[in-house]
Amino acid sequence: MSLEARLEAATTEYQKLQKDITNAVENLQKLDSQLQENEIVQKEFSLLKDDSNIYKLVGPVLVKQDKAEATENVARRLEHIQSDMFVFFSFFNFFLFIVVIWICIVPL
C-alpha cells in the first residue's frame, strides 16, 4: 500500500474517531443536564411539607402525585442517571485507551 493510500486511510479513521467522540460528548452533556435537573427537583422536594401537593406532567395533563412517591421516583431517576454516567465514563476511557494504542501501533 502506498504512503498516500495509508495516509488517506488514517485520515478517514481519524475523522470517524472525531465523530464518535463528538457523539459521546453530546450524550454526556445530555446526561449531565438530566442529572442537574433532577438534583434541583430533589432539593425543591426537600423544602416542601409532607402534605404539599405535587403534580406530574403526563402528556398534556397534570396528575396529582404523593410526595413520598414523587421523591422516590426522583431518587431512582438520579441513581439511573449516575449509573449511566459511570458506564459512559468506563466505555469512554476504554475507547480512549484503544485510540492511543491504535495511534501507537498502527504505522504509517
Secondary-structure map:
Layout: H1 3-47, E1 54-58, E2 61-65, H2 67-105
Antiparallel strand pairs: 1-2
Helix pairs in contact: 1-2
Can you describe what's shown?
The protein has a two-stranded antiparallel ribbon with strand order 1-2. With 108 residues, the chain is mainly alpha-helical. It has a domain at 28-90: Helix Hairpins. Helix content is 78%, strand content 9%. A hairpin with a 2-residue loop joins strand 1 and strand 2. It starts with a helix and ends with a helix. The protein is elongated and about 75 Å long.
Keywords:
single chain; 108 residues; mainly alpha; two-stranded antiparallel ribbon; elongated; membrane; protein-folding chaperone binding; coiled coil
Summarize the structure.
One of its GO terms (molecular function) is unfolded protein binding. By secondary structure, the chain is mainly α. Helix content is 78%, strand content 9%.
Judged by helices, strands and strand pairing, the structural class is mainly alpha
CATH topology-level fold name of one domain: Helix Hairpins
Uncertain spans = none
Shape: elongated
Count of alpha and pi helical runs: 2
Which sequence of strands runs across the widest sheet? 1-2
**How is the biggest beta sheet arranged?**
2 strands, antiparallel
| Average predicted local confidence, pLDDT | 89
CATH class annotation of one domain? Mainly Alpha
Following the backbone from N to C, one meets helices and strands in this order, namely HEEH
| Cα end-to-end separation | 10 Å
Give the DSSP E fraction (strand runs of 2 or more residues): 5-15%
Question: What portion of residues is helical?
Answer: over 70%
In CATH, the architecture of one domain is: Orthogonal Bundle
Rg calc = 22 Å
Number of strands: 2
Protein name: Prefoldin subunit 6
GO cellular component, one term: cytoplasm
Pfam families: Prefoldin_2 (PF01920)
Family: Belongs to the prefoldin subunit beta family.
